[in-house]
Amino acid sequence: MDAIKLLNVSKKYTLIQGFSSLIKTLLFQKRQKILALNKITFSVKKGETVGIIGENGSGKSTLLKVIAGITKQDKGEILVDGRVGSLIELGAGFHPDMTGEENIYLNAALLGYTKEEIGERYNQIVDFADIGNYIGQPVKTYSSGMVVRLGFAVAIHLDPDILLIDEVFSVGDEHFQRKSIAKISEFQKKDKTLVLVSHNLFLVKELCKKVYLLNKGRIVKSGEAVDVINHYLHHYVLDEKATFRKRGKSKKILIKKIEFIGDTKRKKLKFKINEPLDIIVTYENREGNLPSSFGISITDKNGLNLYGFSTDPIQTSKGKGRVKFYISSLPPIEGKLYFSFGIADMVRTIRYDSIENQEIEVKGEPTFYKGIVNFNCRYEHKRL
Questions:
Q1: Taking Cα atoms as reference points, which of 218, 198, 212 lies closest to residue 35?
Q2: Alpha-carbon distance 257 to 303, whole Å?
Q3: What phi, psi does 351 have (nearest 5°)?
Q4: Which of 84, 79, 82, 104 is nearest to 94 (CA)?
Q5: 9, 164, 208 from 51: Cα distances, Å
Q6: Domain spanning 253-383: which superfamily?
Q7: Are 36 and 12 in contact (CB under 8 A)?
Q8: Which of 9, 85, 236, 285 has the CB geometry, 3.0–4.6 Å to 160, for a possible disulfide?
Q9: Annotated domain spans of the chain
Q10: Rounded CA gap, 375 and 21, in Å?
Q11: pLDDT category, 27, cuts 50, 70, 90?
Q12: Does pTM top 0.85 for this prediction?
């Protein structure tokens, strides 16, 4: 049974460039419109967790807004079966002049809860939000992180049937992110429905079985998370010049360079079966003392997961360093292999940075293989 169903949903927005042109635009000129959603049709089954990905401006947030009823579609039909909780815009649904406590009761009332019902959940919400005495202060005095923590705490503890989340994990600190992911796991185990919009592809891959890719207001691909994410990376994100471009100015640890080294001890991207492979991941720690785990995963051209490996927690400190992965002999698999790299906290919950689908080519005489391949990988860490 479907919890959410959209049939040919479209939404247009009017573009107005600056206040000075507002009157001219309204009175004299034709209004310029953009099609944020263009005949969107899809469904989400009850108990399903679905991811929405795409570039900025592709229509992801607008899609969540029309599902939540925050924005009205221009055309099409939307069917939602169940009580909806949403965390879509920072502070959306909060009155800035009201206190955190008052906003909790207001949001609950808008969702149909009685004062007694929210009273039973109030302490859990406040404890989860962890904003201390600010709960009695106007929301306009809150930091962006405090607003997100309170908004997420309200949304998840009101126990909705359907939860809509837009990039909430990009704002909160690590402790909050860890609690939130754990709470979402509890939410999923209760057979609830979740729709997640995020640029964190690692998180989408971990939480969602099905993913929709949006581009210019249209669904351009849907299916298994790995397949859709790989398609997005190859066709919309990665190219030789853009792989490391404009990435993560706010990241605590950033992957700076990835090098593939063969038996010639030189960098290259073409290898032979049975040839040794060294992979050097150079990183920059911008924060300070951070126990970190470095991981790789390897897939074939069909998206089959061949191998995964992660280090034990490595004590990294501020500055540059490198992790060198050793593969003693490439297995008898001819064709292209795709390597993804990630740096996470010591419990592998919060992803500091990641680079997806770096490609190498392997040639030689292949033999039949089945299932998971053991690449016999080891590693060493060195401060630079």
A1: 218
A2: 24
A3: -85, 115
A4: 104
A5: 18, 10, 6
A6: abc- transporter (atp binding component) like domain (2.70.50.60)
A7: yes
A8: 85
A9: 2-237, 253-383
A10: 62
A11: low
A12: no
- Is the pLDDT score of 209 beyond 80? yes
Tokens linked to 372:
């998971």
Give the chain's mean pLDDT. Answer: 83
Contacts 24+ apart (CB under 8 A), 112-116: 112/83, 113/158
Picking from 215, 176, 228, the residue whose alpha carbon sits closest to that of residue 349 is 176
On the 0-12 / 13-18 / 19+ scale of CB atoms within 10 A, 324 is middle
Q: Is the per-residue pLDDT at 275 higher than 90?
A: yes
Q: Is 173 helix (H, G, I), strand (E, B) or coil?
A: coil
> In whole angstroms, what separates CA 313 from the centre of its chain?
23
Per-residue tokens: 188: 């999923």
Which of the 8 DSSP states describes residue 333? Answer: -
C-alpha 120/C-alpha 107 separation (Å) is 15
For 24: left if phi > 0, alpha if psi spans -120 to 50, otherwise beta; the answer is: alpha
Lowest mean pLDDT among 69-83, 261-275, 290-304: 290-304
Please name the fold of domain 2-237.
Answer: Rossmann fold (3.40.50)
